[in-house]
């Protein structure tokens, strides 16, 4: 007769920045399935699972709820899964103290809480139309973004450290760079988008003053920067930092310029609409498609990879 032992009675899993499409439940599905399979294999009574999905309040949580219900139904055959939606910024406390066992943030913590204050206050544009001026100000812009990322990510780690149980696990993946190959790279994954908007300025679709006061609150750190911030914050042990290609050759060959344009629109539409108004979005999408089709070199995010970090909360 199979002997079932119960290791832990409940496990809380949180996804930070879940978004709203089918991707909203993709990661938790993998985690939940892995836990149930492990329990079946080890002949353990499965724990009660509680899944918490977080994103900013403007996220389409109605859509998330529909995906959650479908996911819950699929998981029923394995065991009980309770679900909840937690709206709010992950730069604030979201969950109660020492309550979360596993947290992940996929492709979300490269979004800063806001653009660097020193650039905004100093009226220094993130992207100068003039090539010489842009090169000259480049280190200043980069440093301001790097400082802001350090401040935000330190806060993110500190908040999650309060919410995770001792020994709790956190997995983060975000676009960034490998320090070993960093020569000539920008650490600003939005460079190509700024180039698109600048093209729209030159055609009179967008006003120059508007672009000069537009900042994309996003930063791609290097693996070395990430490691240093995590070590300095000191709440977590680093298990692993891995880098992998954003797209493999198969992805590259199957992605059309239209798909690239739609992806850029999906990612940047909210902040573009907020700053420039809804009328420019169609033209933005067309401009991206045109440049991808033409193979404009400024669009290729040289050296951009996905960095995945696995952490354990110190006991
Ligand atoms: C590119 S989507 C990633 C979605 C999903 N995690 C995935 O891997 O496909 C980034 C998500 O992060 C969310 N996000 C950005 N800043 C956030 C913040 N401060 N707090 C919570 N969510 C945030 C955005 O609203 C967006 O839904």
* Small molecules bound: S-adenosylmethionine
Strand content: 15-25%
CATH topology tier name: Rossmann fold
Q: Which CATH class applies here?
A: Alpha Beta
Keywords: Magnesium, Metal-binding
Family: Belongs to the methyltransferase superfamily. Type-7 methyltransferase family. SABATH subfamily.
GO molecular function: metal ion binding; methyltransferase activity
Structure described in brief:
The protein has 10 helices and 7 strands. Strands 3-2-1-4-5-7-6 form a 7-stranded mixed beta sheet, sandwiched between helices. With 315 residues, the chain is of the alpha/beta class.
Describe the fold and architecture.
It is a single chain. By secondary structure, the protein is an alpha/beta fold. It has ten helices and seven strands. It has a seven-stranded mixed beta sheet with strand order 3-2-1-4-5-7-6, with helices on both faces. Strand 2, helix 2 (61-75) and strand 3 form a beta-alpha-beta unit. The longest helix has 33 residues, at 131-163. The radius of gyration is 21 Å and the shape is globular. S-adenosylmethionine is lined by residues 17-19, 23, 54-56, 59, 89-91, 106-108, 111. S-adenosylmethionine binds next to strand 2.
């Amino acid at each position: 007769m199979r002997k079932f032992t119960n290791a832990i009675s409940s496990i809380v899993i949180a996804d930070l920045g879940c978004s709203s499409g089918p991707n909203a439940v993709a990661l938790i599905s993998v985690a939940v399935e892995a836990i149930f399979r492990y329990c079946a294999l080890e002949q353990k009574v499965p724990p009660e699972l509680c899944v918490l999905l977080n994103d900013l309040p403007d996220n389409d949580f109605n859509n998330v709820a529909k995906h959650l219900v479908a996911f819950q139904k699929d998981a029923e055959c394995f065991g009980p899964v309770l679900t909840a939606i937690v709206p709010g910024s992950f730069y604030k406390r979201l969950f109660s103290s020492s309550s979360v066992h596993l947290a992940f943030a996929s492709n979300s913590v490269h979004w800063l809480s806001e653009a660097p204050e020193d650039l905004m206050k100093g009226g220094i544009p993130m992207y100068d139309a003039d090539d010489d001026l842009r090169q000259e100000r480049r280190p200043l812009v980069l440093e301001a973004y790097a400082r802001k990322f350090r401040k935000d990510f330190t806060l993110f780690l500190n908040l999650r450290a309060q919410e995770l149980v001792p020994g709790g696990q956190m997995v983060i993946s975000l676009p960034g760079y490998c320090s070993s190959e960093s020569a000539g790279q920008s650490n600003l994954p939005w460079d190509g988008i700024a180039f698109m908007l600048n093209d729209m300025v030159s055609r009179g679709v967008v006003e120059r003053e508007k672009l000069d006061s537009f900042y994309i609150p996003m930063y791609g750190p290097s693996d070395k920067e990430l490691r240093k911030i995590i070590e300095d914050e000191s709440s977590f042990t680093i298990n692993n930092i891995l880098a992998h290609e954003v797209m493999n050759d198969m992805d590259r060959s199957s992605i059309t310029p239209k798909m690239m344009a739609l992806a850029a629109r999906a990612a940047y539409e909210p902040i573009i609409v907020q700053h420039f108004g809804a009328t420019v979005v169609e033209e933005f999408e067309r401009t991206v498609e045109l440049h991808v089709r033409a193979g404009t070199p400024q669009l290729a995010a040289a050296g951009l990879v996905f960095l995945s970090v696995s952490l354990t909360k110190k006991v």
